[in-house]
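User: Hello! I'm new to structural biology and keep hearing that structure can be predicted from sequence alone. Could you demonstrate with Aspartate 1-decarboxylase? Please show me the input and the output so I can see what each looks like.

Assistant: Of course. The first part below is the input, the amino acid sequence of Aspartate 1-decarboxylase. The second part is the output, the predicted structure written as tokens.
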Amino acid sequence: MTLLNAMPMVPRAKAHGLVVTGKNLNYYGSLTLGVDILKAVGLYPLERVWVYNVTGGVRFSTYALPGPGGVVA
């Protein structure tokens, strides 16, 4: 077991009720959030995020990328 695997993952921020404003079906692997959202929630670029679809029950984890203000894609 590596040290990274031994460290617990603890959520430290929550952004509830965001709506996806864009998508790219040919690219899988990140979530672009507006810089204003990143600052308000306290997330850093490339930090791991969990995405939950409350309607369909789908969950996945990815990483956050900074984007223009108000963007969730």
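User: So the tokens describe the shape?

Assistant: Right, they're a compact way of writing down the 3D structure. Reading them back into a model, for example: The chain has a mean pLDDT of 82.
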